[in-house]
Write a structure and sequence with these properties.
globular, alpha/beta, 30% helix
Length: 97
C-alpha cells in the first residue's frame, strides 16, 4: 500500500508537443494528478502529436492554454498567461517539454 499523497503535476507543453503529451499520459499510470498547460503555440495534431493527443483526450486530462483561439471546440480551457502563472503555484511539480 502506498501511503504517499497523490502529487499534482503540471505538464508545460512548449517545444516538443508530442513528447510532452506522451509523458503526461504515462505519468497517469502512477495515479498522479496531471494537468496540461499548452503555452504560446497552437497544438499540431497532424503529425507526431496525433496519437498522444488522442490518449490524453481518452484519459480525460485537463488542458489549459494561453491561446484564446484554442479554447473551443477542443475542450481546452483558455486562461490569460498571468492567471496560468498563478495556477502553476498549486502544483507539486512542473515539467516542461
Amino acid at each position: 500500500m502506498n501511503d504517499q499523497a497523490e502529487k499534482k503535476i503540471a505538464m508545460l507543453v512548449m517545444n516538443d508537443q508530442a513528447e510532452a503529451l506522451r509523458v503526461a499520459g504515462g505519468i497517469t499510470i502512477l495515479n498522479e494528478n496531471v494537468d496540461i498547460f499548452l503555452l504560446d503555440r497552437q497544438l499540431d495534431i497532424s503529425g507526431a502529436a496525433s496519437a498522444p493527443f488522442e490518449m490524453i483526450r481518452e484519459l480525460g486530462l485537463k488542458v489549459f492554454t494561453n491561446i484564446k483561439e484554442m479554447d473551443k471546440p477542443d475542450g481546452f480551457e483558455y486562461l490569460p498567461t498571468d492567471v496560468l502563472a498563478c495556477r502553476l503555484l498549486e502544483y507539486d511539480h512542473a515539467l516542461a517539454f
